[in-house]
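Slide 14.
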Amino acid sequence: MYISKAGFHWKHDVDFAIERKDGYNGMQILLIQSKAKISVSGINYNVLPNTAVVINNSVPHSLYADGEEYMDDWIRFQISQEERYTFEKYNIPLNVPLYLKDDNTLELMLQCCCRVFDNNYAETLQMQHNLLETALLYLSGIGREYCHAKPIPYEEELRMLRKEIYDNPGIERSSPQIAKKLNLSVGYLNKIYSDLFGTSYMKDVFSSRMEYAQTLLLTTDKPVNEIAELCGYNSSEHFSRYFKKYSCMSPLQYRNKGGKQK
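Slide 15: predicted structure.
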């Protein structure tokens, strides 16, 4: 786990409004420090100061001031495939507001994350990992009261399916194909998948392929066309277009820059 971008006590005027239709590449911890209106995955919320949201990879969201200066703290971070399984065990409610009342623990943690990110400390990546893990464990405890009151149907099958998606990203798995296998409608499959994981089925398929592509670009010398094929794309042109949308860089730029945006 490492931080890709971070901000502490970022302020905006009372007209602040921003829409992120494609979300971000990576996870995000957002701590809203003012009254605000937010929308995550098309669901609207009015939130109080000291409200946290853990936003999943590529989930659309919007932020608006609510009659006063808007302020937030935020951390965007990347997790590896292996860390994803650990992250899921935290059972943090994703893409929903978590009101923290008068507890400023998370604020202090995010401040530390920003300081580490902005300075060239020795072992900075390990420090980022440890601080992020601590913040996520804290949110795991806060989120217990937000856990689903009822078990989600097909939860075991969906968790196995998600593991298969990230273990073997290059295999074709269309929504109709999986829905038929589980004897579900496509619409119901998408609903319960999103309820459980906070993201859509097809976005997870896409993210698994892009994460695998990033790993191959940084750890192998395989050419782009071969990586495209391993990630389930018949066309390297289509693969490159999707990869650039996901990573904000072409595959070769990503490899040459070591995965870091400049």
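Speaker note: The radius of gyration is 19 Å.
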